[in-house]
Each structure stands twice: as C-alpha cells, then as structure tokens.
Design goal:
14 helices; about 30% helix; globular; Urease, subunit C, domain 1; alpha/beta; 2 domains; binds zinc ion; about 475 residues; dihydropyrimidinase activity; 8-stranded parallel beta sheet; TIM Barrel; 7-stranded mixed beta sheet; binds dihydropyrimidine-2,4(1H,3H)-dione; about 25% strand
C-alpha cells in the first residue's frame, strides 16, 4: 500500500483552516499532523513512499457533485457524457464523487431502470459514484420497490413536477411517494416547475412564431418555479417528508425555502453555477445581440437561466451565505450543438435541456471566494462537506480527517484557469457553456482514495477506478 504525505499546505474544512500535513495510507487518511511533525518518533516525510509539496496551496476534501446526468435519455437523444468521459472530466476539475440519477421511465420497473444504470456505470468511472433514483412512474409496484432502495444504498429519489408525458408526476403521485419518504427517511428531491402550465405557455409562444431559444426562458417563468416550490413544500409538510429542491434559480423559490425552513421544516435546496453566473439577458439574447440566433441553445436548461435585472443571481449568492440554500451541484447534463441542441432549430421546445459544468464547478465556486461572495470554508462546505452530509456519505467523504477516504484536492489559489473548448475542456461536448472564462485558482493535484489521478497537466487515473457508493440516510435533517 502506498503512503503519501501532503505537506506544507493549508488544510481547509467547512469550519476552519490550519497549516497541516496530511498522511495518507493506502486508500484512507491516517493522520492530520502539525506541519513537519514526527509520528511515533519517525520523520514522516522520510518514511513515506511519496511526498506532495502543497506549499502555498489549499488542501481540501475532494468535490462531491450530487446532481449529474450521464447518458440521460432526453428529448430524443442522450446526454453526451458517458460515465467514463464525464467522471474523468469531473476528476480534472477536482470532483472525486458524483451522485447520478438512475432513471425509471414510464412503464418501466424501477428494478430494471436501476439495473441499466448500474450497467452503464460499473467499470467505467474514474471516481466514486452513487445513485439517486428518478421515479418516472408511480404505482403500487414502484412504491414498494422504492421502500427497499435504502438497502441498496440509494437513499434519495427525484420526482418531476415538470415535463408532462415524460418524467412528470401529478400531486397525488407525489403525495404517495412522499409518504414513502416519510416512512423510510429517504430524501425526496424535487424538480419544482409547473410543467403543465409551462407547456401551454411554450406552445402559445411557438404558435406566435416565437421559436428562438430565448423563449425557453420566457415560457419557464419564475412564477412557475415559485408556485411548484411552494406546492412541493406543502405536500412535504402534509406528509412529513424531508424535501430537497434541485436546481433552484428563482429568488422567489428561495423565499419559499427560507419561509419553510424558518418554520422548522426539513426542506433544503441547491443551486448550480449557471444560476450564479449566467443570465437570460446575456446568454439567451434579451439584449438583442443574439436575438434570433440559435446560439442561445447552448444555455437552454431547466430550470432556465433567469433575468439579471430581476436580481435572481444576487439572491442565489445571498442564499448560499445565509444557508437558505445549502449546496451547489452542477445538474451536469451535456448535449452537443451538432445533432443534439440542433434538434430544436425552429422550435425551442425541442432543444434538449442541459448544460455541462462538471469539470468547472470547483473553480467556478472558488470565484465566489475571490470576489468575496463566500468564505473559503463555505466554498468547501457548499461543494463537498454538505453534499456528503446531505446524501449520507459524511465521515467517509467530504472531510479531511483520520479514517476518511483519501479524496483530496491540492488547490492553488495563485494559479489560473482558462476555460474553453481548446483549453481545459474534457467533457464530451462540442462547445463550452463557459467559453472564455479566465479565472483565478487551479486544481493542481487530485487524489481519489489515495491514488493520484490528476497531477498538474497529467491524467493518471483509469476507467474503473471509481466504485459504487452505498449511501446512508441524510445526515443533515433538523
Ligand atoms: N434539467 C435539465 O436542464 N436537464 C435535464 C433534466 C432537467 O431537469
Ligand atoms: Zn430537474
Ligand atoms: Zn437534473
């Protein structure tokens, strides 16, 4: 077993920072030591197999991206990253675990959807991976199966109030699934947008000839997110189910979460980098420069990018500071422009929804530290520690402490990252939603369970390094 000492760095946790050396023994962290300390009378640096010099750098727990969609079938095509390409890109960006969504489609048994997901992922991942279960068909059989999933390490499930005819569940179905959530402790994850109303608005826009990507954001108005978020909260209250709202983008949805949390309800939310940095005006063309252009399709995702003038982005940052939102995931759901986004030429409703960011989440969120939106500790908390606690991985993941998996990132705050297709991009996409971003900070070294998988500009990992994570129940409930 290889022993490694990461020396000279500043170890950052969700609660503080300290100059410390980290001793890794095989796959786990053995000790966090005073800098240069001896262990049992032995000079540690002289006795290990490898020393990683982290002088001037941060040593943080590997990122956990709790919302990804590798190979998701959507809109007549499939998300373009496989478990192999997507998890390798994640590793390049300092993410060492993902939680992907296994899909049960309408008419399918959960067991079969889940087995298919295991088959896609097994032996292909660069980093560790777990699953949430998408419940696309609520019936007596699927509810019974859902109850048994915690035994298989799947302790959360996602439902959709959007996408009628695809993943959509009505309130009665949601209520029944939430009763399972209450009984088992599984976390209900909700895509909170009023899909039936959105579909009417979208069809009316297309009938008026408003077919450009910009109208995707118009149809999916924030009122539809606020309303659905409130409805999900009330159904969760009624059933006493713990609830987690995914990809929150509207400030009014955050207000709903804050309101419910202030009443003591077990309600949580995530946002994503795209809702912090990107906007309807800038990406989809409301200001005119891309008006009528199909370029905006690159940023079509749901929930949609929101208006900066309405203050949604500022509200997301604020909520991350006040803990009205607890964490940041990517909702990584990449599609190429060619043959995929292009399916929506002439009709924005047919553009596959999704943005790819798995490789850039840690860097993009570090910009919040640079600009003073969040502290260094909060950066670690939002991207690693809380995802671990929220989804039953804490202790093994999300923290640098003896006994934890040695998932560690050495991050250089004085480094620089240029994002773009020809630059840092490893995702399987023919464009980058973040093209041209020149940002502070750099992922220098990445260890996944003790193995160095990224070393500067070298990738040392392999397909199949990643193992399936059997998760426990959420460790974050009130
Ligand atoms: N939103 C997306 O942008 N893509 C996939 C599914 C979703 O809810
Ligand atoms: Zn969703
Ligand atoms: Zn998603």
């Amino acid at each position: 077993m290889t022993t490694t000492l990461i020396t000279g760095g500043t170890v950052v946790s969700a609660t503080g920072r300290a100059a410390a050396d980290v001793l890794v023994d095989g796959e786990t962290i053995r000790a966090v030591l005073e800098p240069g300390a001896a262990l049992l009378g032995t000079d540690v640096a002289a006795s290990v197999d490898r020393v990683i010099d982290a002088t001037g750098k941060y040593v943080i727990p590997g990122g956990i991206d709790a919302h990804t969609h590798m190979q998701l079938p959507f809109g007549g095509t499939e998300a373009s990253d496989t478990f192999e390409t997507g998890t390798r890109a994640a590793a390049w960006g300092g993410t060492t675990s993902i939680i992907d969504f296994a899909v049960q489609t309408y008419g399918q048994r959960i067991e079969d959807g889940l087995a298919a997901w295991h088959e896609k992922a097994a032996g292909n991942c660069a980093i560790d991976y777990g699953f949430h279960q998408i419940v696309g068909d609520v019936n007596e059989a699927s509810l019974a199966t859902l109850r048994r999933l915690p035994d298989e390490g799947i302790t959360s499930f996602k439902m959709f109030m959007a996408y009628p005819g695809v993943f959509y569940s009505d309130d009665a179905q949601i209520l029944k699934a939430m009763q399972v959530s209450r009984d088992t402790g599984m976390l209900t994850m909700m895509h909170a947008e009023n899909g039936p109303a959105i579909d009417v608005l979208a069809t009316q826009l297309v009938e008026q000839g408003r077919t450009d990507p910009f109208y995707h954001g118009v149809a999916r108005a924030w009122e539809m997110e606020e309303e659905a978020t409130h409805r999900a909260i009330m159904l969760a209250k009624l059933t006493a189910a713990p609830l987690y709202i995914v990809h929150v983008s509207a400030k009014q949805a955050v207000e709903q979460l804050a309101w419910a949390r202030d009443k003591g309800q077990n309600v949580y939310g995530e946002t994503c980098p795209q809702y912090l940095y990107l906007s309807l005006e800038d990406q989809l063309g409301a200001k005119g420069e891309q008006w009528g252009s199909f370029e905006g399709a690159k940023w079509v995702c749901s929930t949609p990018l929101r208006s900066r003038e309405e203050g949604h982005q500022d509200s997301m940052w604020q909520a991350l500071r006040t803990n009205d939102l607890q964490m940041v995931s990517t909702d990584h759901c990449p599609f190429c422009m060619k043959d995929q986004k292009e399916l929506g030429l002439g009709d924005f409703r047919k553009i596959p929804n999704g943005i790819g960011s798995i490789e850039h989440r840690m860097d993009l969120m570090y910009q919040g530290v640079v600009t003073g939106e969040i502290t260094l500790e909060r950066w670690v908390e939002l991207t690693s520690t809380t995802p671990a606690r929220m989804f039953g991985l804490y202790g093994t993941k999300g923290v640098i402490q003896p006994g934890a998996d040695a998932d560690i990132v050495v991050y250089d705050p004085n480094g620089h990252t240029s994002i773009g297709l020809e630059k840092t991009h490893h995702m399987n996409m023919d464009y980058s939603a973040w093209e041209g971003y020149e940002i502070d900070g750099h992922v220098d070294t990445v260890l996944s369970r003790g193995k160095v998988i990224v070393d500067g500009d070298q990738y040392l990992g392999a397909k199949g390094d990643g193992r399936f994570l059997k998760r426990g129940l959420s460790q974050y409930l009130i």
